[in-house]
Amino acid sequence: MNPTSDPAAIKVRAPGKLILTGEHAVVYGNPAIATAINKYVTTTIKPALEFEFTCNQLNYSHQLTISELRHLKHRIQQQYNEFLHGKCELAAVILRPMELLQYSCINFTLSNRNKCSSSLVRFK
């Protein structure tokens, strides 16, 4: 089904960014200079038990179930907590670029499940 023909589908597009200076400085509360670039990531949320993440520029397409996304969320939160306590490097928190999008998706979905129409997202 074409996501644009599904009235319950939500399609979101966000630009990439280029950090000119200060990428690591922001970890310590200092400023950075960043700008949006003309490369985008797009995701569509529609009635399903799986989420599909696609980034054509990276030749990436992958489907994850709600259960797999919950597991990813738990792992990222656990690694971030270990980072805060000096037990691991920051690079161990998000292992692949798409994990940040996937983490955001599951956080949005779980925090809005009571507000969303039941036809938008289904939970087991």
Written overview of the protein:
- The chain is built from two helices and four strands.
- It has about 120 residues and is α+β, with helices and mostly antiparallel strands.
- The chain has one domain.
- The protein has a four-stranded antiparallel beta sheet with strand order 1-2-3-4.
- The two termini are about 20 Å apart.
- The relative contact order is 0.15.
- The C terminus is likely disordered.
Outline the fold blueprint:
Elements: E1 10-21, E2 33-45, E3 50-55, E4 60-65, H1 66-84, H2 97-111
Antiparallel strand pairs: 1-2, 2-3, 3-4
Mean pLDDT: 78
Listing every helix as H and every strand as E from the N terminus to the C terminus, the arrangement reads: EEEEHH
Q: In the residues, how many domains can be counted?
A: 1
| Rg, Cα atoms, Å | 17 Å
Largest sheet: 4 strands, antiparallel
Number of helices: 2
Q: Strands of the biggest beta sheet: in what spatial order?
A: 1-2-3-4
N-to-C span: 22 Å
* DSSP E strands, number: 4
Low-confidence stretches: 115-124
By helix and strand content, what is the structural category?
alpha+beta
Helical fraction equals 25-40%
How big a fraction of the residues is strand? 25-35%
Cα shape: globular
